[in-house]
Every structure is written in structure tokens, then in C-alpha cells.
């Protein structure tokens, strides 16, 4: 199964319906969602099977839990929350391992029940049962039948945390003794990646004692409004000639678009096939797509990935590869522009015109007005606008780097906040800034200090700078709260296969499994 990443999108998107991109982004200037990778189900156990003498239901069986709509007011009633579950490895006394894929329809993620993921590896080693729970407001787990701002009132980090608590305390699991394994009787382990990795940390902070242990992969624990550092792991790890040439082009773009020479401005837009784009910040911001392709490298490594093709287009000239300095502005402009006009534009936008594909100013577009459920991006952007930010924009002035992203897209000009207003019309009187201070105060962000919580991060993860391995933050790893950095990308370590193919991830898995083993030995039932 292909992950809903951008490379998969590029391969698929010949036709683009009303400029909605295949990864759920409403247009080419909407920041990508930090989804976690889908893992394969090796045995494709989508039929009942025998294991250790028991008949186990198919992995993809959907179960439903009556979840409270509003944890502050039970009179609002309940909604059906979907989950998946297996007990193939379970033995009495074993842990219950709960993971949520967070901001996605959870149906493609049932592989996380199995030993192709870290969740299943823990279950296999510790004789536990696994659960994949769909997060409220994603997929088919919705309190109300639409995603209007009125319904989204109940879409908050706190309600999601309260969901986990209410689920763990009240679910009757479809397994032997399935009502006798609540967190007071059995050790529960919470697992997540990316946003749901952060949710793992935030939940353990907010509900001490509920989960006995946690595994948080690429957890973006710190909410950051101006998240320009998203592009830092990319800049640091991409080929140096490529970053030199990208920086040369971006410097020219910013200078030209900030100036008054309309001939030069029009020429530059035309270079990338973006003449139809009305606003210059949208045109300059569109060039972020080539860098956003980096996020998909984890699942499409090696030559042939879109990011690699991009750097090859810039750096290989007449069969010759540029040295460290790159080829310089003139060649970079011509080759980057040619790459856009010849292949990239249509991969990204299909037949859509450039304004529909990259414009972020038109409130009448269906992408802003459609409030149907199962629209990941709409649900995710609500959390972005209100609680976490993570705006992937250009670096502030004065930062001593050569930017690879335009400064025309920034927090001061409300580039993302303006889109919040369009998306949730009549919700905000002015462009909103998320209350990240509250998020980081209530859920502790980088200041988390919790027993039995394992943080797993990736050096090349673009989300690294919001994790416990952010540069310059220097948080101490301890036996009780290990912080382990592999060579991986975003949430690579959730996959068992990655542990086999990358030694640093293999070592991380070993350490995590040892920690879980030791921590579970400390559990004593309170019932
Ligand atoms: C994974 O689990 C299956 C049972 O679902 C088992 O047959 C297989 O051997 C396990 N794989 C590994 C590597 O342990
Ligand atoms: C069922 O769960 C209870 C509470 O954890 C436990 O005491 C009992 O031994 C369990 N029974 C079986 C058959 O596993
Ligand atoms: C130059 O770019 C090419 C193509 O991306 C890359 O393979 C090579 O490693 C780069 N070399 C240097 C010195 O950056
Ligand atoms: C404006 O830009 C064009 C195209 O780059 C250039 O030829 C021209 O000299 C510029 N005009 C001025 C006044 O700088
Ligand atoms: C805005 O979007 C609507 C709906 O797609 C379209 O009819 C209209 O032409 C657009 N306006 C502009 C200025 O692009």
C-alpha cells in the first residue's frame, strides 16, 4: 500500500479534481500533513486464521466504540469511534498496546496491529494485544456528520486525550477476558508517530498513571507557530551543490519579487510556468513543493525519487555533475524552470491552471467551502490553526543561513493564518495565530519529564526541530525517558522492516524492546 505522501501523490495525480491534491492538501501552497507511513501486512491476514490453537478474526475487522462527543458534557451523547484489534500474541498478564495514526483515516493502518510495526513487535515479545484507534474527526469517526466549524468545536487536543482515557477504561475488547484488562488491571502502552507521537507524550503528561509506558516516534512535542526550521534537516542533508543552487534561485526570487521591475517579475514567473498565479507569495511559495518532496524519501529511498530527480535536474548538465558550489544562478534558474515546465507542474497540478493549483486567496473555491467528513486536511488544519501551528515558511531575517525557502511566505504577512480564515469561514474575526503557548504550557512540550516514555527520532526527519532531538534544545536522555536518534526520516522506526534494513533503526528497536521489557516487569495491578 502506498503511503499518502507526496511522491505517491506525484505518481498518481494525472488528473486533479478542483485543484485538490492527492495527499489531501487543498492546493499546492498548503503545508503537507505529517502523516505516518502505512506498514505492510506481510501475511495479508484479511481472513480469520489460526494462531497458537485459537481462531483469530481478520486483522481488518472493524470494531466500534461508543465514545463521548464532549468529555465536559456527557449529555451531548456519543459517536461511533472505529478501531481495529488483534490478540494473536496475547497471554494473560500481557500488555494492551494502543496506537492511533492520528490525523488520517485509520483504515489503511491496520498493519500496525501486526509484527510489521513496532506495536506488533512489542506485542509479540511481551504477549500483548494491539489496538489501532481512529482519532476523532478523521475517517469515519466523527461526532457529527460534517466538518463545519460548529462541529469542529469538539475537535481539540484535550478531547482527543480524553477519548484515549475513556476508551481504555470502558472498552469491552473482543478478546478472551476483554473486560478484565482495563489500565488498573493490565499495563497499557500508548504508541504514536508524528502528531500522534506528540499526543502520546501529551497524554502521559495530562493523564499520569493511565498508560504504563509509551513509545513516541518523531513526536512533534513542541508546538511552534513559525516552523521555518522544518526545512533545516532538508537543507543540512540534501546534496550541498543542490542546496547552493536552490539558495541562489531563492535569493533571486525574493529580490525580484520584492522589487518593482515588472518585466523581471513576469519573466521569472514564466520561467516556472506560473504566469497565471496572481499573488507573488503564492508563486514563490509554490517552489516549496520540491523540498516538501523530501518528506516522502523514507518510503521511496534511492534514485528515482522525486526529490532526487529534482536535484539531478539542477546538478547534472551534459552528463557532468556540479561540484560543491553547484552551477550557479543562471543555470539553476534555467534547469529548475525547465524541470517545472516539462514534468513537475503537471505531476503536481494535473490540468489545473496555476492560480487554482497554487492560489490561496479565493474563498469561493470548493476546497474551502466543502465540509464533508473524511477530509483529513480540513480536520488537521483546524488543529494547526488553533493549537499547534507548524507553519512551514521562510526563515526570519537575521538567521545566518542561505535560505532555500522564500521569505515572502512568513508569519508576519499571515500567509497561513489567512488560509485559516478561508477554510473556516466566519470563525475568526482576524487572521488567527494558534495558542502554542497554552499548548506547550498544558502539555509541557520539550519540558516533558515522564516515567517510561521512549522517544524515537530521525536525523533526516524534516519535523525533527519540533521533537526532543531539536538542535540546540539538548534534552537529556535517561533510562526512564530515553531519547534516541536514528538516521531515519519521519516515523521510519515505526516500521519493523526499517529496523532490518537500517542498522541505526535496528539498534533503536532493540533498545526500545529492552526498555519495554524492563518497564513491564515493574507493573503491579491496582485492582
Ligand atoms: C510475525 O507474526 C506472524 C504471526 O502473525 C509469525 O508467523 C511470524 O513468524 C512473525 N514474524 C517474525 C519475524 O517474528
Ligand atoms: C481476567 O482478568 C482478570 C483481571 O485482570 C484476571 O484476574 C483473570 O485472571 C483473567 N482471567 C483469565 C482467564 O485470563
Ligand atoms: C551534486 O549533485 C548530485 C545530484 O544531486 C549529487 O549526486 C552529488 O552528490 C552532489 N555532489 C556534491 C559534491 O554535492
Ligand atoms: C528589468 O528586468 C529586465 C529583465 O531581467 C532587465 O532586462 C531590465 O534591465 C530591468 N530593468 C531595470 C530598470 O533594472
Ligand atoms: C474563485 O473560485 C471560484 C470557484 O471555483 C471561481 O468560480 C472563480 O472564478 C474564482 N475567482 C477567481 C478570481 O479566480
Automatic annotation (TrEMBL):
Pfam families per UniProt: Peptidase_S28
Signal peptide residue numbers: 1-19
Superkingdom, natural source: Eukaryota
GO biological process entries: proteolysis
Keyword check for RNA-binding: no
The entry's keywords: Glycoprotein, Hydrolase, Protease, Signal
Sample GO molecular function, one term: dipeptidyl-peptidase activity
Family stated for the protein in its record: Belongs to the peptidase S28 family.
Protein name: Serine peptidase S28
Organism: Flammulina velutipes (Agaricus velutipes)
